[in-house]
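Final report, closing paragraph on structural work. Over the funding period we assembled a curated collection of sequence-structure pairs, and we close with a single example.
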Amino acid sequence: MFRGYDDAFHLSFPYILSPQQSLRSAEYTESNPVPLIPPSSFAAVHLPANAGYLNPLALISAQRQIFTNIGGHTLDSSLCTAITQAADHVLVWYRPAASDFFDGTSPPPLKCGRVLLAAGAFSQTVPVSAFSPSDSAAAEMPQQGDAIDCLSLHPKTQVVALFEVSVHDVEVTLKGMPTIIYAGLTKGQGGTEEELDSAYVLPPIYYAPEKKWYVKIGHGKRLEEELEATAGADLQSWYTARSDKTGSTSYSPSIAPPSSDAPARALYHLFRRLFPTVFPLSVNFLNAGLTADTEDGKPCIRMGAGGLSKIGVCTGGNGYGAKACDEIGRLAAELFR
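Its predicted structure, as stored:
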């Protein structure tokens, strides 16, 4: 396997923690890998199998390198604006993503034999259309087209928390910490408004650009918000919707976030419950991503997007796209064999 690709994955043998008595295990207090978590507060189930977490930036970097190694070419900082299909080819229209360099004109379209649209939650924002050889406007970028309505995507927001921890906590207090999958209580089970239905908690990860260690926590379904699948501007603006306009909000690490910021408040309280003796140096909450959910919870991988035979689509990760990307990508590649 390509070395960089292999390095994107980290084995961490996760534990499932839950306040539910039905999951309580007598082995928890004997094998608890993080003694500071109050054993009386949670049940635990150990998953002694190949599992853990992945580094998304390292994964994307490795995938791009593999693509380059086999002769692929990447157009960095470009936005696909439209796709049009003719009888024997497909045109992909694009423009520079940075508005500072966009003068209102677009470069010539890319001429392709077939196209695979794999834009995640943005897949329904790219208009697709057809033109005939006699169409006098064929050489101009179309001003409108049809979104790929067959997808029925449901873009869902994902907020994550980064708790900065000290080197001492990394080397002593949190040493050997596994990945944690938290299974919370629903309202019907006695859960409160601030109770998470589920969450993932990653062990301390070193962020090289910032030279800091962070414990990362992400929420489950209850705190997701659905956005309009065809509203590209709304999807894009969500990433920068937090208070500093960069998609991040910082709060005092010693004070719970306000109730008006429900995701941040819930993630903060979970950290305090899990690690009552760890006092973070800083806390940041990020509008980290959008998941592309489908009606049946399965990826959409098919040719004939928008009724056009030369345009394929691969989207609908449903929140598990990264860890399943090898197989999803393989199935998409089969469309072009």
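The longest helix spans residues 56-69. The chain has two domains: 3-59+154-293, 75-153+295-334. We thank the funder for supporting this effort.
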